[in-house]
């Protein structure tokens, strides 16, 4: 599939290769963040240290589907 890179984030709609993912706290399993990731650039699963309101601290968040 050929992708025109210039069409990303042009404010006129979403191109097919973007994927919405939820980041889940690994300690309390709260779904704290939703992000959009580019499938082509981010193949592996994300693991990010983010603040969790429920835990009251920064915890490791992993993507969920
Ligand atoms: Zn948590």
Automatic annotation (TrEMBL):
InterPro entries: Ribosomal_bL33 (IPR001705), Ribosomal_bL33_sf (IPR038584), Ribosomal_zn-bd (IPR011332). It comes from the Bacteria. GO terms for cellular component: cytoplasm; ribonucleoprotein complex; ribosome. The keyword Ribonucleoprotein applies. Keywords: Ribonucleoprotein, Ribosomal protein. HAMAP family: Ribosomal_bL33. This is Large ribosomal subunit protein bL33. It comes from Coprobacillus cateniformis. The gene is rpmG.
């Amino acid at each position: 599939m050929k992708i025109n890179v210039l069409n990303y984030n042009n404010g006129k709609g979403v191109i097919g290769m973007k994927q919405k993912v939820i980041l889940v706290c690994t300690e309390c399993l709260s779904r704290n963040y939703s992000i959009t990731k580019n499938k082509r650039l981010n193949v592996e699963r994300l693991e990010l240290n983010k603040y969790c309101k429920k835990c009251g601290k920064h915890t490791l968040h992993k993507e969920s589907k």
